[in-house]
DNA sequence: AGCACGCCGACT
DNA sequence: GTCGGCGTGCTC
């Protein structure tokens, strides 16, 4: 009893690469009413427990074979179709726009669409969904009216009182520049105003958060949805605080994976409604469903938290770029510093640069190694000039000290032979979390109570590197009587007052000071630059710029132990000049983002087979393979952006073949043969 | 993942 | 001749 002529094309919710395409089913007449594109369905499947979950992606007329969603017409299936077993609920959770985005993101990184959809569609919560469906059904007209009134403050209701904030919207960027960007749906690389701003009767926030909120409200007033993507929760809180002041009540949905599941699903469902909204969240927000998307904005795209740790590992910048291209919305990449990726897009002309109209910026002074004359300041490795600056500034208000590492002494050495102290169990480095504590291993956590040095049998430690705790101790002596506040991952502090205090923070954990810091000391420059990574310079510049942007206007920012291009980029406040130089280097070296990269790992035979398929594709070269652990080898494939689709398609085909073929050697209950693994655009790769 | 199909070695 | 080993491929 099926309705003839109607074919449901279903994406199976499975991580298996060989199932990552659409399967055709017939639609039984009794399900036809609910069987709309985007609903969750249960379908029979000749294995894995007979019935599996999936999404109904599209409905097509069987009489018109081949007329499927553009581009993804899988080879037509000829055979008898099984009927859909059930429509899980009539909620159309996978919108066509999000499906297209998920498919494209998966395709460009040889991944699974269902893995991307898992980020986009949170787990179903039956009670929440029933309540939402009931609300939809009951008086939809009144509902829509109410939402319309909420979403559009220019109508009847008076706008939320926002003295001094909304009147001067965007004035920092020159009249009309950003209004125009929203209206004409431009793509912008935008430099944030590098100072904090005080909300009326509220906390201080980064000016960038106000800009983001204003862009969103502008979009909302134009009748479209804005998605704001920020890397972490402290950033979300700042934007939320600005939206509380600027945006109409009820117009903001916050989506992030840290909310309790029912809350998360509730805000997800709210995004499905027909009325425009402001959607604020972390990297997964880039995939949120949106009614008439007008703006996609990212804050600080260089932050590694924008990089998805789950397969297929897409960066939210890439998700945003793809979605912008598909939907034609405005795109804003806002930051204090500039990532090399954004610099590339600027140089290509893909993004237009926008700077604040006033050239006011933090006054950064690079200081040399000249030690302070105060012995305690010297112990705290504070340069002389910085010490004097801090002492002066502490009369007026809070002073920020940025350090590289948390803890007391993150790295210990042997007092006798000066070599690094190692864990007797696992060879990991030993460190000290607090002043009076017992040293412990940073890898395995084991306490080193009865330690002796493997080199010289010594039994006492010396401090090899200094953490925030030790710096606090030293600075306490150098500035007697001053209140000391420590902020790091273990002691997160959002906000400090305007009273004098020394705030010692690890990079990225700096609290915001009411009215801004009166001085900022960026210590540990050399240590931060000592990390071995392609991105050190870029990362350091980002950490320093983000900290310097917490200064009050006119306050001094002292950058210790750093010279050269980085120091110049800081003191002229032109991080894009560093990004441009860096990009030129990467082009020379053929490193990302001048090219894209993919790592291919597995057994030697599997990797060789995969690489063989890439031989014909232009602008591809291969580094390795080199041996990894046990039977594994890894090769790095570099390719031009234009060859990306071919490379991804070829590697995906290999992954599918490999997944279908692999079997465990019978009898011996060893683990299964290692699979071929492919990862695109890994920021840690080179 | 599971399950059927299929192509070679010992059996009623 | 056929039963059944497990390697190979498919699941609408």
From TrEMBL:
Residues 144-166 are annotated as: Disordered. InterPro entries: P-loop_NTPase, PriA, PriA_3primeBD, PriA_3primeBD_sf. GO terms for biological process: DNA recombination; DNA replication initiation; DNA replication, synthesis of primer; double-strand break repair. Zn(2+) 1 binds at residues 414, 417, 453, 456. Keywords: ATP-binding, DNA replication, DNA-binding, Metal-binding, Nucleotide-binding, Primosome, Zinc. Its cofactor is Zn(2+). The keyword ATP-binding applies. One of its GO terms (cellular component) is primosome complex. Pfam families: PriA_3primeBD. One of its GO terms (molecular function) is DNA binding. Binds 2 zinc ions per subunit. Residues 9-122 form the Primosomal protein N' 3' DNA-binding domain. It comes from the Bacteria. Zn(2+) 2 binds at residues 423, 426, 441, 444. Initiates the restart of stalled replication forks, which reloads the replicative helicase on sites other than the origin of replication. Recognizes and binds to abandoned replication forks and remodels them to uncover a helicase loading site. Promotes assembly of the primosome at these replication forks. Component of the replication restart primosome. Belongs to the helicase family. PriA subfamily. HAMAP family: PriA. This is Probable replication restart protein PriA. It comes from Cryobacterium tagatosivorans.
């Amino acid at each position: 009893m099926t309705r003839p002529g109607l074919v449901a094309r279903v994406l199976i919710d499975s991580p298996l690469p060989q199932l990552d395409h659409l399967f055709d089913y017939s639609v039984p007449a009794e399900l036809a009413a609910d069987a709309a594109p985007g609903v969750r369905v249960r379908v029979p499947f000749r294995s894995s427990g007979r019935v599996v979950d999936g999404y109904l992606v599209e409905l097509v007329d069987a009489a018109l074979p081949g007329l499927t969603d553009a581009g993804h017409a899988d080879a037509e299936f000829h055979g008898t179709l099984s009927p859909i077993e059930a429509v899980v609920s009539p909620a159309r959770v996978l919108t066509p726009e999000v499906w297209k985005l998920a498919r494209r993101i998966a395709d460009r990184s040889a991944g699974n669409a269902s893995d991307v959809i898992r980020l986009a569609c949170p787990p179903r919560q039956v009670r929440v969904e029933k309540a939402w469906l009931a609300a939809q059904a009951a008086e939809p007209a009144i509902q829509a009216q109410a939402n319309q009134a909420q979403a559009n403050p220019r109508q009847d209701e008076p706008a939320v009182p926002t003295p001094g904030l909304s009147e001067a919207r965007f004035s920092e960027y020159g009249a009309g520049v950003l209004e125009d960007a929203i209206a004409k749906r431009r793509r912008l690389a935008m430099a944030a105003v590098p100072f904090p701003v005080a909300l009326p009767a509220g906390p201080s926030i980064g000016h960038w958060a106000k800009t983001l909120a204003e862009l969103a409200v502008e979009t909302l007033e134009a009748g479209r949805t804005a998605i704001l993507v920020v890397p972490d929760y402290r950033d979300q809180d700042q934007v939320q605080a600005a939206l509380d002041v600027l945006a109409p009540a009820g117009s903001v949905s916050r989506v992030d994976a840290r909310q309790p599941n029912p809350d998360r699903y509730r805000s997800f469902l709210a995004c499905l409604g027909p009325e425009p909204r402001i959607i604020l969240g972390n990297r997964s927000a880039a995939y949120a469903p949106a009614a008439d998307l007008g703006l996609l904005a990212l804050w600080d795209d260089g932050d590694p938290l924008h990089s998805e740790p789950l397969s297929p590992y897409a960066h939210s910048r890439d998700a945003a770029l793809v979605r912008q291209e598909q939907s034609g919305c405005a795109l804003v990449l806002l930051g204090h510093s500039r990532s090399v990726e954004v610099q590339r897009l600027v140089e290509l002309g893909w993004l237009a640069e926008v700077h604040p109209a006033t050239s006011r910026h933090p006054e950064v002074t690079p200081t040399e190694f000249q030690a302070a004359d105060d012995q305690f300041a010297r112990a705290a490795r504070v340069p002389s000039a910085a010490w004097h600056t801090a002492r002066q500034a502490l009369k007026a208000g809070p002073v920020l000290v940025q350090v590289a590492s948390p803890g007391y002494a993150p790295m210990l050495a042997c007092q006798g032979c000066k070599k690094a102290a190692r864990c007797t169990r696992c060879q990991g480095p030993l460190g000290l979390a607090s002043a009076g504590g017992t040293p412990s291993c940073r890898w395995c956590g084991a306490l080193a109570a009865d330690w002796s040095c493997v080199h010289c049998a010594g039994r006492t430690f010396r401090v090899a590197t200094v953490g925030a705790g030790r710096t606090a101790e030293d600075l306490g002596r150098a500035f007697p009587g001053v209140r000391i506040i420590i902020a790091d991952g273990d002691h997160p502090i959002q906000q400090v007052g305007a009273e004098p205090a020394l705030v010692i923070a690890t990079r990225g954990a700096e609290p915001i000071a009411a009215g801004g810091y009166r001085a900022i000391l960026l210590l540990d420059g050399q240590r931060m630059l000592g990390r071995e990574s392609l991105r050190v310079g870029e990362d350091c510049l980002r950490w320093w710029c983000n900290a310097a942007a917490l200064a009050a206007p006119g306050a001094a920012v002292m950058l210790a132990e750093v010279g050269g291009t980085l120091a110049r980029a800081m003191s002229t406040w032109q991080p894009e000049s560093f990004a441009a130089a860096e990009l030129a280097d990467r082009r020379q070296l053929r490193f990302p983002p001048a090219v894209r990269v993919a790592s291919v790992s597995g057994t030697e035979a599997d990797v060789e087979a995969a690489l063989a398929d890439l031989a014909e594709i232009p602008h591809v070269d291969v580094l390795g393979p080199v041996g990894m652990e046990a039977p594994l080898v890894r090769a790095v494939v570099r390719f031009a952006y234009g060859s990306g689709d071919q490379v991804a398609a070829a590697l995906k085909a290999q992954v599918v073949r490999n997944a279908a073929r692999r079997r465990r050697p019978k009898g011996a209950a060893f683990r299964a043969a290692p699979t071929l693994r492919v990862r695109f655009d890994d920021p840690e790769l080179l």
